[in-house]
Amino acid sequence: MKKIIGCMLFLLVLATALSGCKSESIEVSKGNNKDESEKPIEVEWFIAFDWYSKQWDDINTALDKYITEQTGVKFKITTGNEEKLSALIAGNQLPDMVTVAHSSPQRKMLENSGMLAPLDELIKEYAPDYKIPQSMQEWFRNEDGHFYGYVNYFYPPEELQAEDQLETHTAMYARADIMDQLGITKKDFETKEGTITALKKVKDANIEYNGFTVMPAYFSTADISQFFGGGKREDEEGNLITRPESDLEAITFLNELYREGLMPEEAVTLTEDQIGEKISAGAIFAFTGHRVMTKTKALTESDPHAKLTHIGPIKGDDFSGDWHILPNSLSGWTMTSINANSPYKEEIVKFFEFMTSEEMSLNAWYGPKGITWDYNQDGKVEYLPDVQKEVDEDYNKAELKYGLGNFTWFVDILPVTRTMPEPTNPFDEYSTEGPEYFNEFTYDALALEGAIVEGGTPESAIKAKVDDYTEKMTAEMILAESEEEAEKLYEELIKNQDNLGFKELYDYRNKKFKEAKERLGVEYIWPEYLDEK
Q1: What is the pLDDT of residue 394?
Q2: How far apart are CA 264 and CA 258, in angstroms?
Q3: By the 8 A CB rule, do 130 and 360 touch?
Q4: Is 15 exposed, middle or buried (0-12, 13-18, 19+ CB in 10 A)?
Q5: Strand partners, 234
Q6: Residue 299: C-alpha distances to residues 205, 214, 279, 319, 436 (Å)
Q7: How far is C-alpha 474 from the geometric centre of its chain's CA atoms?
Q8: Are the C-beta atoms of 189 and 312 separated by less than 8 Å?
């Protein structure tokens, strides 16, 4: 009897073991439809932005948990600058995934290195129903006939609707409460003279706020130059303009602000993040840049009365009455690609397919639908009441809990802007109204984005030298002791740029610009020339 019982127990254990092996085999074959008890795979992912600090947390962050449950994938994220990425390329040490600004030289280096798996081939093999906009495929198609990654914030012309706006990051904001306090109006910022007068009012008022003396302005050369020159980057012959006359006008204007004590030296040296921190602390009255504005939520959270409002654009000396601002990036922001040697190519491309649906763009922005948000009767996104309360009380805490807006590497911006919720707080108000105002000045300048310099070319080395020198000299010009000195330094800048190979760099970019227009089937992009046709 003992032997019989022993044999029966042995057979039972064996049957159970075989059943377990069979079950596990079935689950693996299901790909992304993972059983809750199956351990997710961990994909290594390098993101070439050293400011990005997110770590995957599928236990405590609702979005991370949702994505891992749905795809069976979690991530080990590392970040760094483009130089670090170059080192990874040189050492053949790419992780499973890599994200880089699509305009960076490293993107083409990666595509031509053989280290990336062509995304079109992966789709054909593992996700045949995955549809990427044809215009994205064609715009980023490599000379070898393949395209190698997904680009977020891309504007597919075949999907644009009449109400869609082309987004610009050129912007200008000021503290509305201080404007009201000092009798400053939006109209004051339509001219250089009016802007200087308004900023002097702020300086003379010597306003103390949150332990700071409020500094009148932190303006960038690029934004001011685009205001003054109307964003014009094409001449009458259809050639690229890379040295607009408005550059010198912008530099002498900022130099005047510096010499008048209206803009400090650190306005030239601080990063966007650092300037955003100062604005959030209430230390700055007026500033330029959409990206800086997005970092200012803490200001109105601590003081709802200290809201910002859009001002400008400032007209330059050659203002003609009908002008436009250059849109930031119709071709998107970053490209995310897959290592050709990754053992997880199938899982990753299916993750791509999952993340690039319209609803997942909203989930990446607002957290998982049904947990943090739902559609209201007008088809707009609306936070659930308890979540809205958490967002209003402490956005940073809610962001960590739900994963709000911190995982946008696959976002399609069109469904996000079409379903944007109604503003519920001061930050939502000015971060909605400002872009809507400045976006009205944009035009379709996609061809400009075709004039990038590819990595590994002689021109890329020239560009690096020219850019480094120009950045250094721009700071010196703005901080010059007189307008005459600033103009003299500008002449020196042009001369030394030429010595560094600016002419070769320009010819290269102008050729790329014209090729991009040919691909798009347009002769001109500047609206004035289009109107003449």
Answers
A1: 87
A2: 6
A3: no
A4: exposed
A5: 240
A6: 21, 13, 7, 34, 21
A7: 24
A8: yes
Tokens of 527: 């609206």
Kindly write down the DSSP assignment for every residue of 307-349, as one continuous string. -EEE--PPB-TT--S------S-TB-SEEEEEBTT-TTHHHHH
521: alpha, beta or left, given left = phi > 0 and alpha = psi -120 to 50? left
Cβ atoms of 258 and 307 within 8 Å: the answer is no
Q: Which CATH superfamily is domain 41-160+330-418 in?
A: Periplasmic binding protein-like II (3.40.190.10)
DSSP code of residue 86: H
Which pairs from 240-245 meet CB under 8 Å and 24+ separation?
240/448, 240/451, 240/506, 240/509, 240/510, 240/513, 240/514, 242/506, 242/509, 243/494, 245/318
What is the helix (H) or strand (E) element at residue 426, kind and residue range? Answer: helix 426-439
Q: What pLDDT was estimated at residue 161? A: 92
Residue for token pair 């120009």 = 470
pLDDT for 30:
35
Q: What is the C-alpha to C-alpha distance for residues 163 and 354, in angstroms, rounded to an integer?
A: 27
The reply to whether CATH 3.40.50.970 applies to domain 172-328+420-445 is no
Q: How far apart are CA 253 and CA 195, in angstroms?
A: 10
Q: Cβ distance 180 to 168 under 8 Å?
A: no
pLDDT of res. 327: 65
pTM above 0.70, yes or no: yes
Kindly give the interhelix angle for 483-499 and 502-520, rounded to the nearest 10 degrees.
80
User: How many residues appear in the chain?
Assistant: 533
DSSP string of 162-231, one letter each residue: TTPPPP----EEEEHHHHHHHT--GGGGGBHHHHHHHHHHHHHHT-EETTEEPEEEE--HHHHHHHHHTT
- Please, where in the chain does CATH 3.40.190.10 lie? 41-160+330-418, 172-328+420-445
User: H or E stretch including 132?
Assistant: none
Question: Residue 313: its pLDDT value, please?
Answer: 94
Question: Quick one: tokens of 488?
Answer: 């003299």
Q: Which of 512, 521, 442 is nearest to 160 (CA)?
A: 442
Helix (H, G, I), strand (E, B) or coil at 103: coil
pLDDT of residue 301: 85
Contact, 301 vs 286, CB < 8 A?
Answer: no
- Which parts of the chain sit beneath pLDDT 70? 1-37, 327-328, 531-533
